[in-house]
């Protein structure tokens, strides 16, 4: 959403979730029952900030927040 013009996004890394899902598919194809597999919560989250949008609406993002961001879109 941030790449499309949103200001800030914080959420699970979807690429990581797909990689972890592949492990589940492998286990199911090897014969494990899906009901016996543990539920896994996302482990990697990412913070993305769009500075172009922030400037357009007149918001100044603190440098400390920018330093913590995984990705900054200028």
Number-wise, the strands total: 3
How far is the first residue's CA from the last residue's CA? 15 Å
Helix content: 25-40%
Q: Looking at the structure, what is the overall shape?
A: elongated
* Quaternary structure state of the chains depicted: single chain
Instruction: Label the structural class.
Output: alpha+beta
Mean pLDDT: 92
Radius of gyration: 18 Å
Return residue spans where pLDDT drops below 50 for at least 5 consecutive residues.
Answer: none
**Helix count, DSSP H or I runs of 4 or more residues:** 3
Order of helices and strands: EHEHHE
Describe the strand arrangement of the main beta sheet, using strand numbers.
1-2-3
Largest pleated sheet: 3 strands, mixed
Strand-residue fraction? 15-25%
Question: Would you spell out the secondary-structure blueprint of this structure?
Answer:
Blueprint: E1 8-12, H1 14-29, E2 45-50, H2 51-57, H3 63-68, E3 71-73
Parallel strand pairs: 2-3
Antiparallel strand pairs: 1-2
Q: Can you offer a commentary on this structure?
A:
The protein has 74 residues and is of the alpha+beta class. Helices cover 39% and strands 19% of the residues. The chain has a 3-stranded mixed sheet. The protein is elongated, with a radius of gyration of 18 Å. The mean pLDDT is 92.
